What does this fold into?
Amino acid sequence: MGLFFESIHQLEELKMALVFQETPRTDALACALERSHPERPSQVLNLASKYGFTPTKLIAIWQKYMVFKAQNAFYKALPEVFRAVIRDAMGAESCCPRCNGIREVSVPEEFRRPNGSPRRICPQCGGSGIVRMLGNSSAQRLVLESVVFTGRRAVLVQHLHSTVCRD
Ligand SMILES: [Zn+2]
It folds into this structure.
């Protein structure tokens, strides 16, 4: 209850929560709050009771709106989250750990041919100086399961899809 009463001072958000319900009674209470500008929680509750809303009902409406706002934040962040997951899945190019990017390695004297070069092309990077580090396997699995809609994450992805496409 304490948290709700702290929030109730944010009258604009409470009105949004009521309008979000899309019922004649919640619309009417939102209009009444707009007209009367109550300053104390008790005034809000008194007004709400005139429209048939108990404190418990008002809290339920508020909580439903907070869930809606949280879902909105989730959907808004989703593209960036997936971009980051895809980056993790792909791995990254890195300086070759064998030659440190020099592209060549030295050949120990005992392995050199007569008059052979003391250096040879790095066998790990093939002379490019760059290697691709393995991508994060959890991220790869998440991307693949999301794209092909299989596996246990399909439930989440299908839920998101159906939620977004419902409206
Ligand atoms: Zn190398």
Remarks:
- The chain has seven helices and four strands.
- The chain has two domains: 2-91+136-166, 93-132.
- The first strand starts at residue 93 and ends at 95.
- The chain has a mean pLDDT of 85.
